[in-house]
Write a sequence for this structure.
């Protein structure tokens, strides 16, 4: 059974860069796209972007200019960097296993990390 | 931007049937998915590819699609089904994932 464990800094100041990492245990790292999804307090889910084992990425156009997603296949890990954060980036950030949005037969996000609360405050 | 529209809330009594809708300008060739999220927990996939129920999800959960609306149906609602439910699909150009705004299901 695949498990996702994530970590990263929980408190940032405006203009800093958010950095989170997600490690994948069990199951195959190949054959999937690995996503970052966030949820502001009391609000809904927002997909940030994803990456596969070969480094191919997709991202939400609303965040694309600030998002960098990278992968380390030697450790079965992937990471999110979100630059120039503001209070609007305060959210619970999840990593999740899924497939590419441009794949005609994609399944949904079937495994999720535990979530990391990131607060942006001066 | 592409949007998926859900009702903010749905209320039902135990044992009744809850229906949560998700509408879009158009559902492209891609599928729709449904997630259940309880307070303090990560979302759980309850309906995959429009109508498929993942392993471990109770049979009372089902999905359907009609035109530009997908529906999550929970038959014989139980108190434990009280949660937020989100639909998900791909945008009209097929390049990024989109979530609906979420529906709070209250079991009276």
């Amino acid at each position: 059974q695949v498990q996702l464990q994530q970590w990263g800094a929980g408190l940032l100041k405006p203009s800093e860069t958010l950095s989170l990492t997600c490690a994948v245990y069990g199951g195959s790292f190949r054959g999937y796209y690995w996503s970052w999804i966030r949820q502001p307090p009391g609000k809904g889910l927002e997909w940030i972007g994803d990456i596969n084992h070969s480094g191919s990425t997709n991202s939400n156009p609303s965040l694309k200019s600030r998002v960098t997603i990278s992968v380390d296949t030697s450790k079965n890990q992937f990471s999110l960097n979100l630059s120039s954060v503001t209070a609007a980036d305060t959210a619970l950030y999840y990593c999740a296993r899924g497939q590419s949005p441009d794949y005609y037969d994609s399944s949904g996000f079937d495994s999720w990390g535990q979530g990391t609360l990131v607060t942006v405050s001066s | 931007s592409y949007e998926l529209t859900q009702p903010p809330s749905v209320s039902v009594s135990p044992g009744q049937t809850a229906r949560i809708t998700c509408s879009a300008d158009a559902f492209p060739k891609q599928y729709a998915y449904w997630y259940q999220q309880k307070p303090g927990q990560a979302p759980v996939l309850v309906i995959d590819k429009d109508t498929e129920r993942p392993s471990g999800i109770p049979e009372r959960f089902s999905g359907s699609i009609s035109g530009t609306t997908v529906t999550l149906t929970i038959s014989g609602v139980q108190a434990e089904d009280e949660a937020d439910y989100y639909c998900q699909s791909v945008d009209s150009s097929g390049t990024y994932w989109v979530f609906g705004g979420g529906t709070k299901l209250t079991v009276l």
